[in-house]
Request: fold
Amino acid sequence: MLIGEILNVDLDGDGRADGFQISVRNQFFHGSHPLGWFRDIAVTVDGETLPPAQTYLGLRGQLFRCDSLRSILEVFWKEREIATILVVRQHGLSAGPHRIECSIGTSVQTYTRALDLFDVRERGTLVLEQDFEVSGEMIALRGLL
Reply:
């Protein structure tokens, strides 16, 4: 579930937006999974799919590049826990309405301590879509990346 509001972020302290962030709640039925269970996280804004190498998952003060999640076994995203998705995008998002889609690919393997590193098993995908009104407000997250 996408929650809260979208905020533009200033990552380098120059006063200009370098991306945006949105919060997402883990709503999967089984309570706790290592990040490696999540095959990928893709973000689409107004029909434009953003590069996975510029998308990060923030969880309990740690930041993980979404295209490397499949190799992480020791960090778990717990049931109903809120994480932040940070997207590095020049100028962030303009003020006004935006359609955000967050696609979360998962392994269908039930024993999650054994990771499917080579993506050979079937996968499932959860797609979260929501319309947001971006206010243009910006927060500073210097030194995060």
Notes: The CA atoms of residues 77 and 145 lie 21 Å apart. The first strand starts at residue 2 and ends at 10. The chain has one domain: 2-140. The chain has a mean pLDDT of 80.
